[in-house]
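[agent] plan:
  1. take the single chain provided in the ticket
  2. run structure prediction with default settings
  3. attach structure tokens to the ticket
  4. add a short note for the reviewer (M.T.)
[agent] executing step 1
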Amino acid sequence: MKSTSISYPALLQQLQKQQLSPLYWLEGEEEYYIDRLIAVFENQLLSEQEKDFNLHIFYGEEADWRDVVNACRQYPAFAARQVVILKEAQQMPLSQLQKLETYIAHPLASTIFVVAYKHGKIDGRTSFGKLIREKCVYFASAQIYEEQIPQWIEQYLQEKGLKATPQAIHMLAEHIGNDLTRISMELEKIRLNLKDQQEIDEHLVEQYVGISREYNVFQLQDAIGKKDVARILNILRYFSLNPRSAPLQLVIASLYQYFVKLWQLHSMRNLTDKAVADQLGIHPFFLKQYYAAAQQYPKPIVERNILLLHAYNLKSVGIEPITGDESSLLQEMIFRLIS
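[agent] step 2 finished; step 3 output follows
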């Protein structure tokens, strides 16, 4: 019985080499990789002429399971294969989705049937989940962690033959978070406006993505690390006038990761700078800033601040009562962190 997920690079390579199977099940929280794979199934397995009769696309919200199965059981017309894709399968009622069991158990060799089930998974303990993992080429698209985003951006740019400054990468990572689809769209927007061999810097990010290079969460983090009160006040004033630039929960999440990294740094012993940067998940360019911040915040204060951020997170989501608006709550939190 197959139970493990195939990796994205391995599956992409198989498709590009036309090493095809009759059943594919793509599921998980991260829709970016699912969308990219669906684009390959939709656009690269059939010629333009073959698509007219042999490409069938259904959407979970409106499709009936009978129509999907009937399409799968057809034979290709004037082609070696046909492709049937069920997109947004998570929107189909589970009772209907489970009706696909009969076909999945006995698929047609000349049909490539692909199911895209986003923002969740079919329970692998159920008979349906076990059948999927046994019969299908199974791909689970897991959401990547926030600390992995800078490395992901750097790798994405390398694949495109592009480079970016560490500051530009971290501006994007801190502002957008782990929404890979949006990150890729913003990077494409920048790429289309680049001159030959131009490196992506913070000026380009500010111009085309709309993130201020002076007043953003990354700069606030740096100012807090240095306990630069004047700069903190300027950034908070900008956030107050432009609340969409730094939602409270985004700031809390970013600062929480920052102080967790400082806590890890305090716990490290006898490591090279490269090893420290790798373990923290940061670019070596920023390591001096973290060492300086660790001097400003001894380990007990770091632990206090992690607990403090947790408490303010409860307030930001409405679990604990608050007085005043988000702007005043943010200012109160920041000055308690640096005190």
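[agent] step 4 note for reviewer: Residues 215-338 form a domain with the Zinc Finger, Delta Prime; domain 3 fold (CATH 1.20.272.10).
[agent] ticket updated
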